[in-house]
Design brief:
about 20% helix
Length: about 120
């Protein structure tokens, strides 16, 4: 698993491809025992967690993004102004293409498999 540490949206530069890695919480509940407000887990908004977005900036309390790929919710190239800054400012990370996880291990596995096959067949003797 790749560690995608959640960051504040201001930590990204224009043009970087980002995604949401934590839900946003619309409500808070006050915990009497801890004496502080905590996120209400029943109000979690996971919008954008599967998406890849090109970060453009923040304007008028909106995080402005351009969709970097088509998925179930967004079309590539569309301007995305769904994310309100006050709710969605935290929980972002650089986007990782899932295909890289599949393909990055293939050459290593292929070489390992070939080496094992050659050893089994006594190729080196």
């Amino acid at each position: 698993m790749i560690n995608q540490e959640p960051k504040h949206i201001s930590e990204f530069k224009k043009g970087q491809i980002i995604t949401r890695v934590e839900p946003a919480y619309m409500n808070e509940i006050y915990d009497d025992l801890l004496r502080k407000s905590l996120p209400d887990k029943t109000s979690a908004d996971r919008s954008g967690m599967e998406g890849a977005f090109e970060y453009l900036g923040v304007v008028n309390n909106m995080i402005i993004l351009k969709c970097a790929r088509t998925d179930s919710s967004f079309k590539k190239g569309e301007l995305c102004t769904y994310f309100s800054y006050d709710i969605f400012q935290n929980g972002w990370a650089l986007w990782v293409d899932p295909q890289t996880l599949i393909h990055e291990n293939e050459p290593k596995n292929a070489i390992k498999d070939l080496t094992n096959k050659l050893l089994e067949d006594n190729f080196f003797n």
